[in-house]
Amino acid sequence: LRSSSAPAADSDPNAALGSAPPSGVGGIAPGRDEIKLLLPTRDPSAPTARLQVKLETGHRITLTMEPHALLSELWAALEKWRSTHSIARAAAGGRQCSLRSAFPPRTYSDMSETLEHAGLTPSATLFVTVDVPAAT
Q1: How far is residue 38 from each of residues 1, 61, 116, measured CA to CA in Å?
Q2: Gyration radius from the chain CA atoms
Q3: Which residues contact residue 41 at a Cβ distance below 8 angstroms, ignoring those fewer than 6 apart?
Q4: pLDDT of 81-95, one tens digit each?
């Protein structure tokens, strides 16, 4: 795991996600962090999945991952980034959140699906949205 702002070597699987939070309201201002979740033994010419994710808080994170990584790994990386930056978990307070793309419009709910099978390679833009319960 490596952040573009972290000096850790590519082979350090314990490197921190994201950089130190900038000053702002609530201790962090919406910005952009880059996270690389690539295998240290990978062929440098092998394809990757580059994902730009906009959280419901307005924060933007760019992740570079292996195409065979699972959606659950993407979600876990986002949760770890939130924890590192003291941002509430996506499902905090009983909220239901979804990972979606605008084009083509799709909600990604099968966390066992690979990024490649989900059509998120070589690159994609995703949004974490808070699902509003239907009125009864």
Answers
A1: 7, 16, 15
A2: 15
A3: none
A4: 999 999 887 766 777
